[in-house]
Structure formats: C-alpha cells, structure tokens
What does this fold into?
Amino acid sequence: MDQLDDILHQDLDPTETQEWVESLNAVINHDGTERAHYLLEKMVDSTRRAGGYLPFNPTTEYVNTISPANEAKMSGDAAMEWRIRTLIRWNAMAMVVRANRKPGELGGHIASFASSATLYDVGFNHFWRAPSADHPGDLVFHQGHSSPGIYARSFLEGRISEEQLDLFRMEVAGHGRGLSSYPHPWLMPDYWQVPTVSMGLGPIQAIYQAQFWKYLENRGLMPKTDRKIWCFMGDGETDEPESLGAISLAGREGLDNLVFVINANLQRLDGPVRGNGKIIQELEGVFRGAGWNAIKVVWGSYWDPLLARDTKGVLRKLMMETVDGEYQACKAFGGAYTREHFFGKYPETREMVANLSDDDIWRLNRGGHDPHKVYAAYHQAVNTKGMPTVILAKTVKGYGMGSAGESQNPTHQQKKLDADAVRHFRDRFNIPVSDEKLAEVPYFHPGKDSPEVEYMMERRRALGGFLPQRRRHTDIKLKAPDLSAFTQITNGTGEREISTTMALVRGMNLLLRDKQIGERIVPIVADEARTFGMEGMFRQIGIYAPFGQKYRPQDADQLLYYREDQKGQVLQEGISEAGGMAAWMAAATSYSISNQPMLPFFIYYSMFGFQRIGDLAWAAGDMRARGFLIGGTAGRTTLNGEGLQHEDGHSHLLSGAIPNVKSYDPTFSYEVAVILQDGTRRMVQEQEDVYYYITVMNENYSHPDLPQGVEEGIIKGMYLFKDAGKPKKGEPRVQLLGSGTILREVIAAAELLEKDFGVTADIWSCPSFSELRRDGFDAERWNRLHPEAEQRVPFVTGLLQGRQGPAIAASDYVREFADQIRAFMPDGMRYTVLGTDGFGRSDTREHLRGFFEVDRYWIAHAALAALAKDGKVNAKDVARAIKTYKLDPEKPNPLTV
Ligand SMILES: Cc1ncc(C[n+]2csc(CCOP(=O)(O)OP(=O)(O)O)c2C)c(N)n1
Ligand SMILES: [Mg+2]
It folds into this structure.
C-alpha cells in the first residue's frame, strides 16, 4: 500500500462515516455551525465519559478558517487599492535602496513590509479609525521593521515629503525632519505611538493596553466603545517569551478589543521559522488553547477552485503534510518546482494542476496577499465578541523582490537592490517610472489630485483622519495637590518607627483622596501588595476584576478583605513583573493614547525591576510614559533575609541610564513626600515627558520633620542635613554623604567620629546621586562650549565648595552609584565612596552592612583614612579605628566572595 492508500483506508467504515458527515451537514444547513459544534462537543464528551482517550486537538486543517461561502465581501474598489498598494510598495523599497546608496551603511528592510503590505492596506483602507470627535480611535502596533511601508503611505497622503523620505534613518542630519528607523515616539512624537521593534514588546504591551482600555471603561472613566487594538508581529517574533507569555490573560479577560495579526512569512532573519513544522498550525493551537479566536488566512482566492474540487481531501492532506521549509522553497523556486515537488506528490493533486501553466501555479497566492481574504478575516475579528482574535496570515517574505529576495533565506537583510532587481520590481507592480529614470530609483507620487490619492484620502476621511498620529498632551487639565496636602508624611513620626515604603503608601493614599487626581491613580502590583503594606487598598478601592467577584472571599469577615470589583482601582497582575510593567506603560501613556491622564504606581521588588524588565523600561522612556515606578524592599543590605537573588544593589545604575527617568533613593518620609508632589506636578500638571523611579525600604525608623527650605535640594538630589558649623582651628572636619537607609549609618558614623576622634562632620542627604550627575555633566559641557562666559557651577560643587575636609559617601548600592558625582567635587576635595559591590546574601542588616563595609564603623574608618591622606590625622588614628571598631584588615573584598 502506498502512503495515500494508507491514509484513505484508515477509515474502518466509510459508509457509516459518510452518513454521519451527511447528518452533520444537515444540522449545519438547518441550524447553523454553532449547533453542529455543540453536538460535536457533546459527542466528544460522551466518548470521554465512556472511557475513550481523546487527546485535545486544538488545530484544524491547514486551510482558511473562514470558508469562501462565509467570507464578508470587501467594499471599495479592489483594483484601485491594488494600484495604491503597488505605489506604496515601490516607495517603501525606493527609500531603503536610496538610503543604502548613500555613504554610511544606514540599513533598512524591504522584505518584511513586502510581505505585509496587503495586511496593512486593508486595515488602513477599511478598518482603522483615527481619533476624532466621534470615536476615540484604534491603536495599531506596527511591526518595527515594516516602518518604510508606513512612511510610504504617509508620503502618498502628503504627510511626509520626498525630502523626508530621503532622510530615512538620518535623524541627526535631518534636524527633526528625519524619519526614524523604527517606530519611536521619542523621535517622532506626533507620529508613532508605540515602540515595537524590540521583538516581543509590542505583543505584551498590546495585551495590557487592551486590558487597560477595559479598565478605563469599567471604571467609568471612558465610555464603552468598539475601539480596537491591532498588534502586528512577525512569526519569528512569536518565539520571544513576551510575545506569547501573556496571551492567556487576554483569553481569560475576554479582551475582544484586541486583534493580533501575525505575519507568517515563514521566515525570520537567518532562515525559516519552523522549517520542519508549520508555524501557523503551532500558533493556532497555542492561541486557541488560550481562549482566542484563531483565524487562519492561509490560501488566497486562486486556491478556492482547487480546494472546491478536493472532494477526497488529498490536497488538504498534502497541505497538512508539507512543512514550512518546503513551502518556502516552492515560492523561491517557482511554478515548475511547485508542480513537481508539491502537487507531484500524489496523482490526484498532480492531476488537479495539469491544466495550469507554471505561471498559473506560481500565481496561486497565499492568503495574506489576498485583500479579499484579509478583509474577511478582519471583518470577523472586529465582530467577534467576548474573546480576542489572532489572525494567522500566510505571506511571502520579500514578495515582489523576485530573485533578489523572494522567499530566500538572506532576504531579511537585503537592502541594496541592483538594477535588474529594481526593473523587475517596477515591472511586476507596473510602476510608471521610465527606464531612463530607473537607475535613481525615484519616488513616485501620482499627484495630489490623482484618483489614487483621492481614494486614499476619502478612505481616511471616512475613518476619522490619518494614522499613525500621536497626541502629545491630554486636553484634560489637572492640578497636582500642594505639598501641604502631604503633611501626614512631611511631619516627623516622633517615636513611631516606619519605613519609607509605608511613607510612600501613605503618600499614595493621600493622592487617592485628592478630588482631581484620586480616581486617576492606578496602583499596580505583581502579587506583592501585602509585601508593601498595601492590602488596605484592597477593600478601600478594590482590585480590578473585569467580571466582578464571583465568590465570597475567604477573609470576607476581616476589615481588609480581598475585594475584587469590576470598578476596582488596583491592577493586580499576578506574578508577572513584565505584565505589571506593561500595564503601567498602558496607564502611563493613556494621556496620549486615550486622552485620559492617569498616574500609575507600579510597586515591585526592586531587584525584579530594571534588570528583569529593563527593555520595557527603556521602551517606556521612548514612548514618553509618565508615572511612578517604585522599587520596593530596595537596597543590598536593607532587604536583609532574602539573599542573593533579592537584594538589589544596582537598579539605580540601570534606571539612571534611561534619559528621561528621574531616580531617587530617599531616606526620610518627608523626602518621599517632596518627590511625590514634585513628580505629580511635573507629570500630571505640567505634562512633562518624564517618569520616576523611587526606591523605598522596609526598615523601620523614626523620621524627622521636613526641615525648612530643603525642597529644592531634595529634588535636585542633595541638601545639607546637618551643618557642623564653622570648624574650630585644627579641628578635623569631614563631609559625609549618604542616601537611603545607609544615610542613617552615615549619621551614626558622624557621632562616632566626634566622640572617638574629635572629628566633626557636615552631613548631606543625597536622594539622587543620579540627578546630581546629570546636572554636573550638563554644567561641565556648557562651560566647555562657553569658555568666555561666566562659568556655571554644578549643583553639588556649589554645595560643597568652601566646606572643609574630604568627602565620604555611602549608600546601599554599588560604588558606581555614589561615585557618579566624583567629577564635580570641588578642587582639592578628596572623595571616598563606599558601596555594596558583590553578591548579596541572607543575614541580619547589621551583619550585611558589616560584610559590605557600609556600616557606621566602616564609614568612620573611611573618613579617618581620608583625613590621614590629607595629613589631617595620623596613620595611627586609622589603625586605632580599625582596632576600636573591630574591623578585620584581612577580610576578603566582598566583591569576591
Ligand atoms: C529583541 C530583539 N531581538 C532581535 C532583533 C533583531 N531582529 C529584527 S527583525 C528580526 C527577524 C524578524 O523575523 P520575523 O519576526 O519573522 O519578522 P519578518 O521580518 O519575517 O516579518 C530580528 C531577529 C530585534 N529587533 N529585537
Ligand atoms: Mg517572519
């Protein structure tokens, strides 16, 4: 028996099978497919109950999910849309090729957009609404490296000039008119809304955007509408954990405002995505399993007659058996190859195409290139209720590039087409560019009044305006509360001991009570609300639950019970820092995307922040997010018991690298208050595109009152906490600096120094070494460029100038943190920095601070050592400190153990 017989004879009783199929068809015709589905489920259920082992099969045949008879018909002029698409294709190609003929290796991609042009066009022409008076607008996440195609469309619409197309990837020389390589709101703030090119970040952001839109609706902050989020991604991109990692959330919460479009061109950068399998089938299973509506758009209309004739299912079987690597080869090698290697496998399929020429076989299109199939899929997607939709569209990478790249493994990076390839492209898409001009690869614009442009404009008018477009400011004006609203935390705590985490949560509670801003606060946790003492919010403002609380919580009789509510304000994202961050980004950009200013607080273990989800944090900077990230239980020695994986000593280095993040490591409750108030004012009231990172600790101690006049210093990063006054003659003096809880060790060190060595100290609290550094470099740069002007004095230099003695800084972070200000020490002031370099470990705070050499004894010792170097005390004094404070000189460097 050959292989075909094998398949066809698996059926033990074909007549019986036929009867069942006919009955089912009768049900479909009479009562519809849903009824048929119900009956099938019942039968499967009965068989299982009878003991049958029926493995779950989440995939369907390798054909389109929507049968031709069920396809919604596309309105509009398909021929015209094809013309427009060819012009977009041409201009997208031209901008990349022209860019790469210039010196400078500017790069760019042709093949990806070539594969997805139809997927975008159908959306732009028929589905995606811009924000307007009538509609809040859809949101599209574009595949990052398809940007040339989006620019090419805007060029035809007259939004981008020819000069700008020639400034693709020339954002410096372009002086604000250059076009970003990829979608970057930071660089094109009126155009791109969401950064996507770091693979995986688009999909996870899209899911949490969709959740956040429902949140805004359920909380009554926005009306319920049919607005949608469309997220495009590559099939290769789905390998990123972020791409698929949150899809079950979308299924669980029934996010029917979300549509994923996966451009399955079967290739990624190096080669096939699943050469030995089928990516579309794999993804269908994964998404269906997660509760998504999966729509496969595998085959274009030219296949319909063949499939209609496939009564025995041989073609379908062949389609299923063929792996992606082989499909890719068929498109790369053409019609004759496909006849031989694909259809030739079985006599029935060979016969099917006997009457087709090789060219006809070549023209058998993939679904993602057929606007009618794509339209039908989009139509179903936007009309699907109660679940998100994924569209799995099969396409050809480098479509139209011919032998220069179509379906070829290296095509991803093909950016320099030679003359033949350009000619082929022109001919294939019938672009009216003459032979003489071809060498320049000129842009082609049919004219403002051409039927093509008029058609495009009419379509966009009907859909509310141009896309992409980004809103810079929200129309909703809000006023931040004054500092006087925070007296509860600017006042000292007296004998009571609290942590900065508690101060922060109190600050949030005060903001929650604010008439204007209160409802716009979005507390976000990744299953750590209790860790940070926020469980009071559960009852007070509720945990967001899209379908409400369907059970009586176990702790219902408690004061602070676990209250879930459809109108809940806390976003509880479960154990997913990436999810919490993506939710925060959605809330933090809501001012732009939904014209709704929100002030999110994402509170997490600081160790699981910037280092774990740093790429999202970077994207948040790009997209001009506004909100507070709170690194809880921060500090290498302050989070005492948890050990190496938990104790953070470097998140500030990471946050400090993001240009528009303001990072703070406060010690006292009033510092937290001042930072909170100022951040709220800047982000919500002034609408500045910055976001805040504040580390808070879990160590309890008493907090003093807000001293007079220190607000500016707190915000700029440093103020005098204790002035030792003018030193007496011969009195050794040091400048002690510190941040976070280690400032308290610094304060204690000052006492030791005075008591044991007669050394006095000015004490500086430094809530932001990172801000001090930025200010310092800014002044230094300005001075270099303005040599004849009065020279600026960096803030930190100004504070320390005229003070005596060496400066010693200590923090709960690695040395680089406090070392950031070394360049701005006044001339002649020695600077010693202590920090917590090395792996954390579990022990008491006291032991850890001894181990990392940041406790009061080590600080006092470092101060004496610095004074000795300055000739202000003797080496003997230093040795005495070592002895008195029982420091072990042979102790290994904590970095190494
Ligand atoms: C996180 C990350 N890793 C790697 C890359 C580099 N990169 C850009 S495109 C690409 C291949 C994309 O393949 P696919 O997702 O299938 O998209 P296609 O171009 O085929 O549509 C890679 C590896 C990136 N942009 N982001
Ligand atoms: Mg791909």
About this structure: The two ends are 69 Å apart (CA to CA).
